[in-house]
Design brief:
CATH superfamily of the largest domain: P-loop containing nucleotide triphosphate hydrolases
CATH class of the largest domain: Alpha Beta
Radius of gyration: 28 Å
Largest sheet: 5 strands, parallel
Number of domains: 4
Number of strands: 9
Shape: globular
CATH architecture of the largest domain: 3-Layer(aba) Sandwich
Length: 490
């Protein structure tokens, strides 16, 4: 097989474009110290892939570049050339590599010539020893690597403890999450966080992962949703790679699964998760789970899984208070460099009852200011709140069929079971809740509601809806179920 080497101009062009991508990803300190000091000197095409050679001034540079930034370099360069790249690292003098950055022999405009000249100058200057070993450079390199690993794993690197607003409704969950991030596997294992949409479960889960990565970017962390876990098992079975799946999940130092309730009712998935869970706990590896309801309320969850979830620390994260919503709004505004007066933040927090919708509200504010050059004042706030309509009293613009379908999906039942005449306890509870939503939110007549449930008479509907109404007064799990179902029907 013949190998083709890139010309000096081609190598120079590839490196320039690669550096442009990396400059946007890395801090100036890391970029200047670890990228500019280690130029690309050769690219060879062996048809199936490209072999790129990066020449470093010292073995120290080469070793640390390969260990800390190899993946970023591979990804950026592969995007530039449109082909898989393998990078090899060599140690050599700056004289040997300087030719790579000579200006191309093609004609350039004055603007291009100035840019190229500046680029060449920065490439050929080596950082001082004090710069290489400064606390700032080392710390920034660690932070950049941790952020990259966070994204690789599937976490949101912006979900950290510093950006999480704490109040009475979530302070216990926050304290437990911080404790787990400091000592995984030894305290609160498993950690089970539950609550309705937008209360901060996912933020805390990601914050644990990000805090661990900040301490050590090499932590073996696995993060996925319950749905993704299910899909991976199905794919592993279909492709006969179940052994690889088991090895990957059971070797994790920290396993984080969002919306674990999704695996309920799926026997093969629950079987595999049961054994994975046991393996991790026995190895004293950390398991962190989130759900929209407590284990006791997850219909069709195997008892052996329920008991194991309940053996750890379970924390209910409540709906955010007015004070917490205000704090979240101010934190989000600060994150995007918005000077948000506290009085205006309070007005917005009064109208926005969901913490998750605050993100959308801030996004709208930013677009109005940045794109339309609006001023952040009460007029702008009211305008956006009116556009989004009131979130205090949302109306369900659905029909009875949609309600039955969503209740069935939520409790992982068949629609025919909810509409039918079986008297199993979990079916009756779901049936009554569907009746309650039709009566209270759709304002349907009792007789019409009865027709949707195998022709039941209005007295059966009254009995079912009254029972739900009474339970809602004290049953927090049922309250959360109702909120979740209605939020999905909006």
């Amino acid at each position: 097989m013949s190998l083709q080497s890139f010309s000096e101009d081609e190598v120079s062009a590839v490196w320039r474009r690669t550096c442009t991508k990396l400059e946007n990803q890395l801090s100036p300190a890391v970029y200047n110290t670890w990228i500019l000091a280690n130029p690309l000197t050769q690219v060879v095409d062996d048809n199936s892939q490209l072999i790129a050679t990066i020449t470093s001034p010292t073995a120290f540079h080469a070793t640390n570049l390969k260990r800390n930034l190899n993946q970023q370099l591979v990804d950026a360069m592969s995007q530039v050339v449109g082909k898989t790249v393998v990078i090899q690292y060599e140690v050599g003098s700056s004289e040997n590599s300087h030719h790579v950055f000579n200006q191309p022999k093609t004609k350039q405009s004055n603007h291009d010539r100035v840019e190229s000249s500046n680029f060449n100058a920065s490439q050929t200057s080596s950082p001082s020893v004090s710069d290489l070993f400064s606390d700032t450079t080392i710390q920034q390199s660690q932070e950049d690597r941790a952020r990259f690993r966070s994204q690789q794993i599937g976490l949101n690197p912006d979900f950290v403890f510093a950006s999480f607003a704490v109040s009475s409704s979530n302070e216990m969950a926050h304290a437990a999450a911080v404790a787990v991030s400091k000592s995984p596997g030894s305290s609160y294992n498993p950690l089970f966080l539950y609550g309705s949409v937008g209360v901060g479960k996912t933020h805390l889960m990601h914050a644990i992962g990000n805090n661990l990565l900040a301490q050590n970017p090499d932590h073996n962390i696995l993060y996925c949703t319950g749905e993704e876990f299910t899909n991976e098992i199905v794919q592993a079975i279909q492709t006969k790679r179940a052994a690889d799946f088991k090895r990957r999940f059971r070797s994790a130092e920290i396993l984080m699964i969002d919306d674990i309730q999704f695996i309920a009712g799926k026997n093969t998935v629950q079987e595999e998760f049961f054994h994975t869970f046991n393996a991790l706990i026995q190895q004293r590896n950390q398991v962190i789970l989130t759900s929209d309801r407590p284990p006791s309320s997850i219909s069709l969850l195997e008892d052996r899984l329920r008991s194991r979830f309940e053996a750890g620390l379970m924390i209910d994260i409540g709906q955010p208070t007015f004070e917490l919503r205000t704090a979240i709004l101010l934190l989000k505004a600060k994150q995007y460099h918005l000077d948000f007066p506290i009085e205006l933040a309070k007005k917005a927090a009064e109208a926005i009852t969901s913490a998750r919708k605050i993100e959308g509200f801030i996004t709208n504010i930013r677009s109005e200011i940045e794109l339309k050059h609006k001023v952040l004042d009460e007029t702008l706030i009211q305008s956006i709140l009116q556009q989004n309509e009131s979130t205090e009293t949302p109306k369900l613009l659905v029909n009875p069929s949609d309600v039955i379908k969503e209740v069935a999906r939520y409790y992982q039942l068949r629609q025919t079971e909810i509409k039918g005449k079986q008297r199993l306890k979990h079916l009756v509870a779901a049936r009554h809740l569907a009746m309650f939503i039709m009566k209270e939110d759709l304002k349907l007549p009792l007789v019409e509601i009865g027709r949707w449930f195998a022709g039941r008479d209005h007295t059966s509907v009254i009995h079912g809806t009254r029972k739900i109404s009474k339970e809602l007064a004290f049953n927090t799990a049922l309250q959360q179920d109702l909120l979740q179902i209605k939020s999905r029907l909006l």
